[in-house]
Each structure stands twice: as structure tokens, then as C-alpha cells.
Amino acid sequence: MSLQFNETYGLVVRDRKTQTTRPLKFLEYYDKSEYYPGGKLIAVDTPNPTLPANHHIRLTQRPIRTTLGTVASDIEHWQREGMKSGEEFKQTWIKLHGTFNAGLEVCVLRFIRVD
To answer: What's the domain count of the chain?
Structure first.
């Protein structure tokens, strides 16, 4: 199985990103026994899918259900996202998803790179 990254694949490869925030619909998909504990996934660079898929990540805990506002305001969350600030996280989310609604429920996946 794979986990796709758009703008942030380079952060994953450089071990700066150890968390990804996804729409809530991903919660049921990744909160399954085959992914946790220690589920191994291939990290895929979505804009460049022809790059070798040689970077793997391992989920470190069950998915977290929270809100976008919590991710943007909590230093632990936005730093794990590889961002320098909550505002940078917010702008990246807008770039990827079009809008930012602080009350929107989301799914947070935490991982380590395990090539």
C-alpha cells in the first residue's frame, strides 16, 4: 500500500515530516489492523509518480481524529508536519485543498521513514 504526498514529499524523504493530516474519510481506511501497529507503506511523490518508490514509512500509532484548527495551533502538530509555523501549515492546506476551516475534523497519521 502507499501514502501519497503532493507538496511535502521532500520533507518526508529528509525526515522533516513525521505526520500527515488528511480529510476525515481516511480515518476508517488507515485505522485497520494491517496498518497498525507498525504498518509499512510506500511514500509516493504524487506530482512525480515515475520516481522510484524506494522510500517507506511505518505508522507509529493509530490515526488521531482532531480538527484543522488544532493542527494549525499546536506546535507539536505543525512541526511534525514539517512546517515552520501554524500559518505555514494553514497555507499549505489551502494550496492542497482550496480552503481552511478550523473546525473541520481531520485524520492525522504519524510515521517514521524506514527505507
So the answer is: 1
